[in-house]
Request: fold
Amino acid sequence: MKTLLVGEYRKGQLRDSCYELLAFAEKLGAESTLFLVGSPTDLPRTGGKLYLADVAKYGEFNPEAHKQLLLDVVAREKPDAVVFSHSSYGWDLAPRVALALKAAQISEVVDVVDGSFVVPSCNSKLRREVKANTAVSVITVQVGAFNPGQPAGTPTVVALDTEAVGALEFVGYETAEKGGVDLTKAEIIVSAGRGIGKKDNVELIARLAEALGGEYAASRPVVDAEWVEHNRQVGSTGQSVSPKLYLACGISGAVQHLAGMKRSEYVVAINTDRDAPIGEVADVLVIADLLQFVPVLTEKIKAL
Amino acid sequence: MKILVCIKQVPDMESKFRINGAGTWYDESDLAWRINEYDEYAVEQGVRLKEQVGEAEMVVLSIGPDRVKEVIKKALAMGGDRGVHVKDDAAFAKDSFEIASIVAEYAQKESFDVIFTGMQSQDRASAQVGVFLAEMLGLPSVTTIVDFSYADGTVTASRELEGGLKAVVKVATPALFTCQLGLNTPRYPTLPNIMKAKKKELLTVEVAELLKVDERLETSRVYFPERKGGGLVLEGDVGEVADRLIAILKEKTTVL
Reply:
């Protein structure tokens, strides 16, 4: 089996996700060739062949040009699978490539079992085993699902060029407002999820955090509802944290949230749903209504 | 301007799921159904665009059994003008390519200036249908948008990237956008608007009239992931559980 792995380049830097793709190809027992719209000054540390298009010419976000460059390489290499990270770059580009190749797309692969690909469904509550009916498949791989080895080596670069012009104009990057809260350094984080029910209840979470001498934080739905400001969001689109204690209150544990807190040393989850995916990463799962439990816990901690 | 919003009805994700008889999806009985969360933002953005340009019509389309009419009606009560129900009792078994093909077949009969979809569904979560649809219709697409503004035939949208970064993109219409959570604040349908929505056109089309392709992806098995967690489960009287938790934190961590 032959795979073509699609690396990513952002704000002038190679993203580490390409090493996860190499780990995925290795798990498949497949040969791999890399593709990257990037810069010759920051190449992946790996051997093998790398098709490189110059990011200075094509831009970091230009899906139509990137698609055409990739299709040219597919025509030359004839891979069995084209593999992306399931990231904002990958899930945007992969379907464009899949449709052009008349290929099935398999999204967010977390495992490979006997030649079938395993993907999550229903907020990771279910797993699906799927198979492509097409000669070529396009695959996106869940970020963090395949652990990379120690990167080493220098690729053999093949330069690429195309005439494709995109309909999208990339204006530039914007960074979300960063306030004074640096959750990455907090030793204790008490985090609020949708289960808190309403904005007024953020106070309960903040009080528990204060009693513990930590910071309070929130998952995406709570920030989207504007109950908590964005600079306290934990997850793939917020901050990645690694406290000694992470207390998840009413957080179901979507993969994007887990990506931001799985390096916590000790995780306690408080949830009414014992099947919530947060239970998978929790050292202790408290099955309770947090509106009743959190105030009781706060008072007992204060009394210590 | 003609606006199309594609929506899906999904189970509440806090439901207790069971596997269906064939072992290829969840059992659809005894579930509470709602509009896919991402699609609710798509509906709201469609209504806002319609309100902004004035001279506009917004069509809401959904594929599935009769129950999906509920979410079409909700979208109409939020401000959509007419609904299209593609009746398909086996929609759950179709892959993203088939679903996108069905919508494309319908959409090419009317020419839409702006199409909104959710960036993914909460149940399948493949994040494919929106982009497939755009590519099938030969339209540019911008995915995962968290900001949208329209002026004189051009849309400026922000794509959400990782780690708090956004990419600002401009594109001329016609174009398709896939909506990320937090794009806007979806409105609640008011009672008068719910009543009005009942009188709006809701056309039913049989899926056989629109489906002209074969599936590309096959599901061989659906199952519950193994619980790896040796995680301790505490439940019962809240006071006692709090005491036990404090004892555990004292023993296992250095924070107390």
Observations:
- Chain A touches chain B through 94 residues (CB under 8 Å).
